[in-house]
């Protein structure tokens, strides 16, 4: 009988020990949530004429739940058609490993495509001519790490009229 009582007491001790261990593990995990990711977006405005495109992009990102300074940070750079400056800025974006590059117009988009070759950094272009520029493989399937919104060339404008 003493042996059975001893086993019963040890069983209770094991259950108590296991329960305490579970409580400690559960409480230890409370309050240590991982910090939400802050996305870094490099924006290159290659032509002042289209500079308001940045405002529209940021406004839509806000609508999608990305709040500047909370879960997204923008590095906005402007060059106004300076290929050397564009190349330097894009190299910095790549070196900083930004999560996304948003770029416009065509010339800056072509530079971004070249600068991000061999990386996983997605590039979104806007106000870019894609016909005859080798910016994308095709309109339906841009290919690689690049996609965006094309600027309708003269041929497209005539068709729309």
Describe the 3D structure.
It is a single chain. Mean pLDDT is 83; it is low at 1-8. The chain is globular, with a radius of gyration of 27 Å. It contains five helices and five strands. It is 43% helix and 19% strand. It is an alpha/beta fold. It has helices at 2-29, 52-63, 83-95, 106-115, 154-160, and strands at 39-45, 72-78, 100-104, 123-128, 146-150.
Tags for this entry?
five-stranded parallel sheet; globular; alpha/beta
Proportion of residues in β-strands: 15-25%
User: Largest beta sheet: what is the strand line-up?
Assistant: 2-1-3-4-5
- Class inferred from helices and paired strands: alpha/beta
Order of helices and strands: HEHEHEHEEH
Helicity, in percent? 40-55%
Are there runs of 5+ residues with pLDDT below 50, and where?
1-8
Instruction: Kindly provide the radius of gyration, computed on alpha-carbon positions and rounded to a whole number of angstroms.
Output: 27 Å
Overall average residue pLDDT? 83
Distance between the termini: 100 Å
| Overall 3D shape | globular
How many strands, what sense, and barrel or not for the largest sheet? 5 strands, parallel
Secondary structure tally: strands: 5
Number of helices: 5
């Amino acid at each position: 009988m003493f042996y059975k009582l001893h086993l019963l007491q040890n069983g209770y001790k094991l259950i108590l020990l296991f329960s305490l261990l579970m409580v400690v593990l559960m409480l230890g995990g409370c309050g240590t949530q991982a910090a939400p990711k802050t996305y870094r977006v490099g924006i290159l405005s290659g032509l002042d004429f289209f500079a308001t495109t940045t405002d529209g992009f940021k406004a839509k990102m806000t609508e999608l739940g990305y709040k500047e300074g909370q879960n997204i940070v923008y590095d906005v750079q402007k060059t106004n058609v300076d290929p050397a400056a564009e190349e330097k800025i894009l190299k910095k974006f790549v070196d900083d490993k930004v999560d996304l590059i948003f770029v416009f117009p065509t010339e800056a988009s072509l530079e971004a495509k070249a600068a991000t070759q061999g990386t996983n950094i997605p590039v979104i272009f806007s106000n870019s001519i894609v016909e005859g520029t080798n910016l994308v493989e095709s309109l339906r399937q841009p290919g690689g790490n690049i996609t965006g919104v094309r600027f309708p060339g003269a041929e497209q404008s005539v068709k729309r009229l």
